[in-house]
Amino acid sequence: MSIHFSSIRAVILDMDGVLWRGTEVLPGIGEFFAFVEQHRIAFALATNNSTKTVDAYVEHLNSVGVPAGPQHVVTSAVGGGAGEEGHPHPPPPPPAHFER
After folding, report:
1. Mean pLDDT in the chain?
2. Which of 78, 95, 4 is nearest to 43 (CA)?
3. Which residues contact 36 (CB under 8 A, 6 or more apart)?
4. Which residue ranges form the domains of the chain, and what is each CATH number?
5. Does the pLDDT of residue 37 top 60, yes or no?
6. Annotation says 14 is catalytic
7. Could you tell me the pTM of the whole model?
8. Residues 8, 9, 11, 16: which is the catalytic one?
9. How far apart are CA 88 and CA 1, in angstroms?
10. Does residue 63 sit in helix, strand or coil?
11. Chain mean position to CA 21
């Protein structure tokens, strides 16, 4: 089976266990995100951990070489509150844009 990377437009990754395990960053993170950026593949990073803020995740992601902003991070606290009474759905994130 071959993968045609040109057909991949976006990826969603879980952070815990995929990008890091505990405090250990898993190998290949830098290379993966360089590939994603080079091929202009949009991405979202998800977690079911609601103990940290989106900003805390962004800070950690950036510190390990992941070029993420708040628009890339979805936590269970963010996703779980969407649509509840008094909590309108958040606007969709802007399309990912990478400068060359």
Report:
1. 81
2. 95
3. 11, 43
4. 5-81 (3.40.50.1000)
5. yes
6. yes
7. 0.72
8. 16
9. 42
10. helix
11. 16
Report H helices in 1-100.
Answer: 29-38, 54-63, 76-81
Catalytic residue among 10, 11, 12, 14: 14
Residues belonging to the chain = 100
Amino acid type, 13: L
Q: Which of 37, 96, 41, 94 is nearest to 65 (CA)?
A: 37
Q: What is the pLDDT of residue 87?
A: 47
Does the active-site annotation cover 55? Answer: no
| 91: its two tokens | 């606007």
- Cα–Cα distance measured from residue 86 to residue 100, given in angstroms and rounded to the nearest whole number: 41
CA angle 24, 60, 94 (to 5 degrees): 130
User: Residues 1-12: what's their mean pLDDT?
Assistant: 82
Tens digits of residue pLDDT in 39-75: 899 999 999 888 899 999 999 999 998 999 999 999 9
Residue with tokens 């958040």: 90
The residue written with tokens 């949009």 in the block is 42
